[in-house]
Design goal:
The structure is a single chain. The chain is mostly helical. It has one domain (16-292): Up-down Bundle (Rhopdopsin 7-helix transmembrane proteins), CATH 1.20.1070. The protein has 13 helices and no strands. The chain has helices spanning 3-9, 16-46, 48-51, 54-82, 87-120, 122-128, 131-159, 173-176, 180-213, 218-256, 261-285, 289-294, 298-309. Helix 2 runs parallel beside helix 11 (261-285) and helix 5 packs parallel to helix 9 (180-213).
């Protein structure tokens, strides 16, 4: 079940005012996140230094990927209240949405590996971590995430008649990809993917932690920064996992408070799918001094310059 499924499920139970309020809140949150992420994207493409660093190449891919996912999620949420798309447009949107949703954890694993190589293999970092290889890694991430999503379409072609493609459909993954084959495929892919990402983040963190014990001075500070960065990747991974455990949270809450069904679905949608996409770039982006420096307004720089040139006070000579 994907992020928009919960909202789709509540369509028939909401009044007009409730539906309008929830769509308005969703739109404001998504629009705000896209604006913030857009500022990061603008900063990246404005600086040639960022574009030459594979670390920032992977980071900006994560930001753009989240922007695509949020835009599609918002579109599908609004579509559930305004009308159902055709089967083919629905399948296309779901394939892209599922692909981008799975891109995020894989991208985090790539960023953790880059930090591990930079700290534990500094002499080989320049040769191993290049911009071209970062682009190849991004292409590989999209391929790995796209293949299972496209396989969902292949399963439909095998198990359904071709007439299904001419129908109007209630567009959510649990209804479109509803065969036992889809459920098995989704479970296997998610378990394998997140097991791989989890092990990658944990192992890189432990290796950096062990390497930091034998280093002192400036090198130790660099190790500590890398360790904290990888730890933040772990936090981001947990945030990504929230969208996958949302159905279980809904099942527990709805079974205890069935009269709050639509409110529960909306709340879990916001807290497990939208807000993590706001925290993730802020946690990683604003703690980076290079990115933070570009976000400082001109007034900030002016104040700093005045502070530097401001003359020191001198005490007046005493009059005897």
């Amino acid at each position: 079940m994907t992020s928009e499924d919960n909202m789709n499920s509540s369509r028939r139970f909401d009044s007009y005012n409730e539906a309008f309020t929830k769509n308005f809140i969703t739109f404001v949150l998504v629009f705000t996140i896209i604006c913030i992420n857009g500022a990061f994207v603008y900063t990246y493409f404005k600086s040639k230094d960022f574009q030459r660093d594979p670390r920032y190449v992977l980071y900006i891919h994560l930001v753009i990927n989240d922007m695509i996912m949020l835009t599609l999620s918002l579109g599908l949420v609004i579509a559930t209240y305004t009308g159902n798309p055709g089967f083919i447009p629905c399948c296309i949107m779901l394939v892209v949405l599922i692909t981008t949703n799975r891109n995020s954890p894989l991208n985090l694993a790539g960023m953790a590996l880059e930090r591990y190589i930079a700290v534990c293999l500094p002499l080989h970092h320049v040769q191993i971590c290049t911009v071209q290889r970062a682009h190849l890694l991004i292409a590989l991430i999209w391929l790995v995430s796209f293949i299972p999503a496209f396989t969902d379409i292949i399963i439909i072609l095998i198990t359904q008649t071709l007439s299904v493609f001419s129908k109007t459909v209630f567009c959510n993954a649990s209804l479109v990809f509803n065969t036992p084959y889809h459920e098995t495929l989704s479970l296997v892919v998610e378990v394998l993917m997140f097991s791989f990402v989890f092990l990658t983040v944990v192992l890189t963190y432990l290796n950096v932690l062990l390497a930091a014990r034998g280093v002192s001075g400036v090198g130790r500070a660099s190790m500590r920064n890398a360790r904290n960065t990888i730890l933040l990747h772990g936090v981001q991974l947990v945030l990504c996992l929230l969208s996958f455990i949302a159905p279980f949270i809904n099942l527990f809450l709805v079974s205890n408070w069935p009269h709050k069904r639509t409110d529960i679905f909306f709340s879990t949608f916001v807290f497990t799918n939208i807000l993590p996409r706001l925290l993730s770039p802020l946690i990683y982006g604003l703690r980076d001094k290079n990115i933070r420096k570009h976000f400082c307004f001109k007034g900030c720089r002016t104040v700093e310059e005045k502070m530097k040139v401001r003359p020191r006070r001198t005490s007046k000579p005493a009059i005897h």
